[in-house]
Amino acid sequence: QSALTQPPSASGSLGQSVTISCTGTDSDIPNYIYLSWYRQRPGEAPKLLIYELTKRPSGVPDRFSASKSGNTASLTVSGLQADDEGFYYCSTYGGRSNALFGGGTKVTV
Amino acid sequence: DVELLESGGGLVQPGDSLTLSCAASGFTVDHFAMNWVRQAPGKGLEWVSVIYSDDRFTFYADSVKGRFTVFRDKSKNTVHLQMNTVSIEDTAVYFCARDRARSATGWSFDAWGRGTLVTVSS
């Protein structure tokens, strides 16, 4: 199975919004709710931002929202702040007792 | 606080074996599915393996199947990844990650260690 497809980069100004797409195949993203988003800053471990398509873990602000349409998922970061910079990864259950990650999107504010 | 601490990485030669460890604190590893995720230098994340809670099942990425084995040491609250017949393509930072769903597998990882670097080179 191939990794999920994300744009390599995205950018936005302070206070504005940025949306990141994550495209899979008919075999993964459309079939499961197990879609997650992570942010990774250089030299750090990834941090879970969204799980089960739209849910936020405790402590993640509602500026982070996500959705899905067909085989494409999206993460929107609203009210961009300087510390939103980093690499964002999507992940989904691959349907074969495995997880798939996207290639990552570098977000610049 | 929930913490994961990986160890065991280092420089090895192609064909060698290596065992990574992930020591957990703040929770019991036996109650959660535990995963290994790796990141090659300058690259994205790649899921490697999972061991379900209570050791019910283990699964592997195709790229490591037959060479890597994940297992749990309940007495030490630790998860291990035994890596056999390593190749240059296995060079990466290896992260240990906890599944968010207790006693289930939700395929989302809410706790991560800082990783341990494995370098395979001749």
Question: What keywords describe this structure?
Answer:
heterodimer; A: 109 residues; mainly beta; six-stranded mixed sheet; three-stranded antiparallel sheet; 42% strand; B: 122 residues; seven-stranded mixed sheet; four-stranded antiparallel sheet; globular
How would you sum up the global shape of chain A?
globular
Distance between the termini of chain A: 32 Å
Helix content of chain A: under 10%
Report the mean per-residue pLDDT of chain A as an integer.
93
Question: What does this protein look like?
Answer:
- The complex is a heterodimer of chains A (109) and B (122).
- Chain A is mainly beta.
- Helix content of chain A is 0%, strand content 42%.
- Chain A contains no helices and 9 strands.
- In chain A, the strands form 2 sheets. In chain A, strands 1, 3, 4, 7, 8 and 9 form a 6-stranded mixed beta sheet that branches.
- The radius of gyration of chain A is 13 Å and the shape is globular.
- Chain B is an all-beta fold and 122 residues long.
- Chain B has strands spanning 3-7, 10-12, 18-25, 32-39, 45-51, 58-60, 68-73, 78-83, 92-102, 109-112, 116-120.
- Chain B starts with a strand and ends with a strand.
- Chain A binds chain B through residues 1, 3, 32, 34, 36, 38, 40, 44-48, 51-52, 57, 87, 89, 91-93, 97-104, and chain B through 35, 37, 44-47, 50, 57, 59, 61-62, 95, 97, 100, 106-110, 112-115.
